[in-house]
C-alpha cells in the first residue's frame, strides 16, 4: 500500500493533484479534500509530500475497479478522513467534497455538536449533520488542535453581558448548541430586547427564531 508520496506538484485539476516523482520517472494522480486542493492551486512546481490512502473505486456495480490515491497534508488529516467515512452515508467522494474547511474546524463543529456549522459544508444537509454528530461526537478530540479559537466567534457587546450569558446558558440547558444559543441571543439583542434582563432576551430569542 502506498502511504506517502513525495515529489513535485505538476498541477491541480479540480480536486486532483498530479505529483511527479522525477527519480522514478512516474507521476501519480492524487485525489484531495476540497480545502487542500484549493490551498495547493498556487503551489504548482513546488516540492510536496502527501500522506495517502490507496483504494479501489468500484464502477458498474462492482464489475470493474480503478485504483485511486487519496492524499492529505498530514497523517492526522488522513486519520480524520478514515473516521469521517465511517459515518453512514458518507463515501470517499462525498467526504472529499464535504471537507471544504480545515480539519480542526470540522472536528470543532462536531465536538460542539454544532449541526448548523456542519450544514455549511458542501453536501451536508440537516439530517446528515445530525448523523455526523451522533456517530462521531466524543471521537474527534485528537483532531481539534486550535479549532475552538478558530471557529467560535468571540462574544462582544451586550452578548458578553451577564444577562446575555445567562440567556445563553438557559438556551443550552433547553437543548440548543452553544453556537446556536449565541446566535439566537445576538439576534434577540439586535431586535431590541432589554440587554439587562435574561427573561426578555430569552423571549426575544424564540420570537426572532420563529419569525
Give the topology:
Layout: E1 4-13, E2 16-21, E3 26-31, H1 34-40, E4 47-59, E5 64-72, H2 75-84, H3 92-98, H4 103-111, H5 115-118, H6 126-136, H7 147-151, H8 162-173, H9 178-190, H10 198-210
Parallel strand pairs: 3-5
Antiparallel strand pairs: 1-2, 1-4, 2-3, 4-5
Helix pairs in contact: 8-9, 8-10, 9-10
Describe the protein.
This protein is α+β, with helices and mostly antiparallel strands and 211 residues long. It has three domains: 1-73, Nucleic acid-binding proteins (OB fold (Dihydrolipoamide Acetyltransferase, E2P), Beta Barrel); 75-152, DNA polymerase, domain 1 (Orthogonal Bundle); 153-210, no CATH class. The protein is 43% helix and 21% strand. The chain is built from ten helices and five strands, in the order E-E-E-H-E-E-H-H-H-H-H-H-H-H-H. It has helices spanning 34-40, 75-84, 92-98, 103-111, 115-118, 126-136, 147-151, 162-173, 178-190, 198-210, and strands spanning 4-13, 16-21, 26-31, 47-59, 64-72. It has a five-stranded mixed beta barrel with strand order 1-2-3-5-4. Strand 2 (16-21) and strand 3 (26-31) form a beta hairpin. Helix 8 (162-173) crosses helix 9. Mean pLDDT is 84; it is low at 146-160.
Helical stretch count?
Answer: 10
Distance between the termini: 55 Å
Give the overall pLDDT as a whole number: 84
Number of domains: 3
CATH topology of the largest domain, what is it called? DNA polymerase, domain 1
Number of DSSP strand runs: 5
Strand content: 15-25%
> Any idea what the CATH architecture of the largest domain is?
Orthogonal Bundle
Largest sheet: 5 strands, mixed, barrel
Helix content: 40-55%
One letter per element, helices H and strands E, the order comes to: EEEHEEHHHHHHHHH
Global morphology: elongated
Helical/strand content category: alpha+beta
Strand order of the largest sheet: 1-2-3-5-4
Radius of gyration: 21 Å
Q: What is the fourth-level CATH superfamily of the largest domain?
A: 5' to 3' exonuclease, C-terminal subdomain
Level-1 CATH class name of the largest domain:
Mainly Alpha
- Taking pLDDT < 50 over at least 5 consecutive residues as the criterion, the unreliable ranges are 146-160
Amino acid at each position: 500500500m502506498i502511504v506517502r508520496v513525495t515529489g513535485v506538484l505538476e498541477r491541480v485539476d479540480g480536486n486532483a493533484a498530479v505529483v511527479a516523482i522525477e527519480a522514478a520517472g512516474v507521476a501519480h494522480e492524487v485525489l484531495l479534500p476540497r480545502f487542500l486542493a484549493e490551498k495547493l492551486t498556487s503551489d504548482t512546481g513546488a516540492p510536496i509530500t502527501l500522506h495517502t490512502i490507496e483504494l479501489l473505486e468500484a464502477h458498474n456495480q462492482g464489475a470493474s475497479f480503478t485504483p485511486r490515491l487519496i492524499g492529505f497534508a498530514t497523517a492526522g488529516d488522513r486519520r480524520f478522513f478514515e473516521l469521517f467515512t465511517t459515518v453512514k452515508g458518507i463515501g470517499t467522494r462525498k467526504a472529499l467534497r464535504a471537507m471544504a474547511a480545515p480539519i480542526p474546524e470540522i472536528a470543532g463543529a462536531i465536538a460542539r455538536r454544532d449541526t448548523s456549522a456542519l450544514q455549511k459544508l458542501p453536501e451536508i444537509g440537516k439530517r446528515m449533520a445530525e448523523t455526523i454528530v451522533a456517530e462521531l461526537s466524543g471521537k474527534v478530540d485528537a483532531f481539534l488542535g486550535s479549532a475552538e479559537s478558530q471557529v467560535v466567534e468571540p462574544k462582544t457587546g451586550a452578548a458578553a453581558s451577564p444577562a446575555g450569558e445567562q440567556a445563553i446558558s438557559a438556551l443550552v440547558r433547553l437543548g440548543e448548541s452553544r453556537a446556536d444559543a449565541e446566535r439566537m441571543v445576538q439576534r434577540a439583542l439586535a431586535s431590541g430586547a432589554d440587554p439587562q434582563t435574561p427573561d426578555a432576551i430569552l423571549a426575544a430569542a424564540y420570537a426572532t427564531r420563529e419569525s
